[in-house]
Amino acid sequence: MSCTSLRLLAVSSSTYTWNSGQKSVVTYTTTAIERLLDGSVLVTEKGAVTSGFDQGRAAAYQIILPQLDPTACLGAGVGRLAGPEVLTFS
Known about the structure:
Layout: E1 11-17, E2 23-35, E3 41-52, E4 58-65, E5 85-89
Antiparallel strand pairs: 1-2, 2-3, 3-4, 4-5
């Protein structure tokens, strides 16, 4: 990952395993990328459960990615970003 671009996928899929052992596969489309006042980035993805538990239901996912320390960008860049996440099914 470059320190000047986020390399986010426009369409992605994730598999979630519930405490019951059932699985849901969700296909998302990135709908918004916003820089927040503190320099962090809010990524919003919306989609649907395409197979498994709750198939056909809508899903929304948001993650806040932290502002990078410029020294972390020296060399090969940053390999992974993590931050608070919210997942909603409706």
